[in-house]
Amino acid sequence: PHFVPICKAVVSTQSTGGRIGIGVGVAMVALISVIVVIAVATKGGEAEYNKEPWLNIRLPDNIRADKYRMQLNLDWEKWNYTGVQEVTMNVTANTKFFIIHSSGLTLGKTSLFDITNNASLAILRTFTDAEEDAKLKHDFYIVESEKVVGEGQYKMTIDFAGTVQTDKLVGMYRSGYTREGGSEIYQVSTDFEPVDARTAFPCFDEPAQKAKWETTISVTFPDEINVTEYSIVSNMPLKDGGEKKSGSTITASFQESVAMSTTGLMQPKRTGVF
Q1: In this predicted model, what pLDDT tens digit does every residue of 176-195 receive, in sequence order?
Q2: Neighbour tally for 243: CB within 10 Å
Q3: Buried b (16+ CB within 10 A) or exposed e, 75-88
């Protein structure tokens, strides 16, 4: 069982007979009783957690993200986007469930691949924690394989679609300003702290889940916009020849990052289309 400090007791050296001793004794009994109750509850919770890991608010610790490869395609006129998220994972204990965060996204085609054994994995079903229990709000997307898989390296690929936020400055959002003369200039930026990366793309959205990232972003503009006036920037340098402007589209491919949490992927005011 894991114990969290519940209280802090301070006992004065100035006693008043035996009352302090009795009071401390009662406090100790009460504290032990509380610890016993917590231990029993935690033990039962662990058994349930192993059976249905989406009941726990935290991601299972037997699967760790190692590297993401993400393609994002943004429509500048409709303020929406599609993408493909490919995440390589290290599995350290047997499982049937691959759990990733997603909030407000439309998720489509999903596949699993066993890198260690070079074989595709059959998927029994995909579902969210809220579909299993309406009271749950963990933002989990669960992929259940047909059979239990063991330790090794696996890859999960998910097609997704989302919308650029236009009414709040979180996740992937639109902001802008008005030039002299009245013309409006927009930009798309990101703010993923504390848990808003999951609103932009499926990911292991916890600080301890650090992984490398390799991203390609493509933006299609309306015909009246001059794409030469815009650039896509991130917190990693472009690959050699990584930015291409053709017709009404800009595509930028960035170098692989160091291992980082999702909040560090696209820092506010440093990442976006400007």
Answers
A1: 888 888 888 888 989 999 99
A2: 15
A3: ebeebebbbbbbbb
